[in-house]
Amino acid sequence: MKRTIAILGAVVAILFSGAFADEPKADLSTAVQLRAAGLNQAKKEGKQVFLIFGSQGCGWCKVFDKYHADPDVARVLGQYFVFAKVSIDENAGGEEMYNEYGKPRGVPAFSILDADRKVLADSGDAGKNIGFPYEPHEIEHYFTALKTACPSMSERDVELLKEKLNEVRPKKN
Questions:
Q1: pLDDT tens-digit profile of 66-91?
Q2: Gap between the Cα atoms of 13 and 113, Å rounded
Q3: Exposed e or buried b for every residue in 106-124, given b needs 16+ CB within 10 A?
Q4: Residues 6+ away with beta carbon under 8 Å from 149
Q5: Which residues pair with 49 in a beta bridge?
């Protein structure tokens, strides 16, 4: 009898631990807090907000993160943007904010905002989201979005960013 109760207790514990696996993590900032912090910093620094939506298991999100973490990319983009990264599955309100900026479109997705929350450019809506810019038309869309949001970005900076994008993107077989 004790063994049955112990097994039943273990089963219940496993079920409850998995029942909330998709819930946002309570110890992380909320999506609203992340965007607000980005907007405040952008306003102080005269920059735009690069609001990126991703999720924990997204492989292309990791490639996009790797690209943005490159020191040269971070230096160039940091002149124009404050980054606010929202996980749709880990930050409370992340999925709701993701939907605020478009229809379900996959991740990564991004919206570039001015310091007053106006959308200047994005990665595309619904079936047109470029995600990580991989194909030639996606790369063109990405750089058009950057230049639309920051017309003062130099061609030299754009060329450096293109080189770095080419270095980090997976090669076709």
A1: 999 999 999 999 999 999 999 999 99
A2: 44
A3: bbbbbbbbebeeeeebbbb
A4: 48, 80, 81, 112, 114, 120, 121
A5: 82, 113
Instruction: Give the full edge-to-edge strand order of the sheet including 48-54.
Output: 81-87, 48-54, 109-113, 119-122
Closest among 160, 152, 136, 172 to 67, alpha carbons compared: 160
Q: Angle formed by the axes of helices 59-69 and 71-78, to 10°?
A: 80
CA distance 50 to 149: 10
Mean pLDDT of the chain: 88
Closest residue by Cα to residue 50 from 66, 61, 39, 62: 39
Q: Say if domain 23-168 classifies as CATH 3.40.30.10.
A: yes
**How are beta strands 119-122 and 109-113 bridged, if at all?**
antiparallel
End-to-end CA distance of the chain: 59
Q: Read off the pLDDT of residues 108-144 as tens digits, 9 standing for 90 and up.
A: 999 999 999 999 999 999 889 999 999 999 999 999 9
Residue for token pair 């490159």? 70
What pTM value is reported for the model? 0.83
